[in-house]
Specification:
By secondary structure, the protein is mostly beta strands. It has a single domain (24-131), classed as Beta Barrel (Lipocalin). It contains 2 helices and 9 strands; from the N terminus they run ααβββββββββ. The chain has helices at 2-16, 26-29; strands at residues 31-40, 50-51, 57-60, 65-68, 83-88, 93-95, 106-111, 114-119, 125-131. Strands 1, 2, 3, 4, 5, 6, 7, 8 and 9 form a 9-stranded antiparallel β-sheet that branches. A hairpin with a 4-residue loop joins strand 5 (83-88) and strand 6. 18% of the residues are buried.
């Protein structure tokens, strides 16, 4: 009887374990991302994302760098100002010496093939990218 209880307990423990790793791993983050929408909230949380026509891209590289064909420092949709920075996938942040405040850490959120970068304004301002 003790062997049955022990075996049953062991099986329950093994099947109840799961992988609590980050589902948005660094491997998924690495690659090219294209700007598709921006959000500039006018106040009161009423803002929504709006589609944009832009060639702006950012690339998360495995060595921790993040080059872009546009500025990383603002929500600009232009793709005529190359900038770069470094990122931390563990902290979901990046910074760039090309920005006015070189010490500021921009935050980002990744959910599968969608990446949202948060910009430091009074009201929420965000840029949404899709994985290419």
């Amino acid at each position: 009887m003790k062997k049955i209880v022990f075996t049953l307990f062991t099986v329950i423990i093994l099947f109840s374990c799961n992988n609590n790793g980050n589902p948005n791993s660094n491997t998924e983050l690495i690659g090219n991302w294209k700007l598709i929408e921006v959000l500039a909230d006018p106040g009161g949380g009423s803002g929504t994302f709006s589609s944009v026509e832009s060639e702006k891209t950012i690339t998360f590289k495995s060595g921790g760098t993040i080059p872009s064909n546009g500025t990383l420092c603002t929500m600009s949709i232009n793709s005529d100002n190359q900038t770069s920075g470094t990122y931390s996938s563990a902290e979901s942040t990046f910074n760039s010496s090309d920005c006015n405040n070189t010490d500021y850490n921009f935050t980002f959120e990744q959910n599968a093939s969608i990446l949202i970068i948060n910009y430091p304004y009074i009201e929420p301002c965000k840029a949404k990218y899709i994985k290419e």
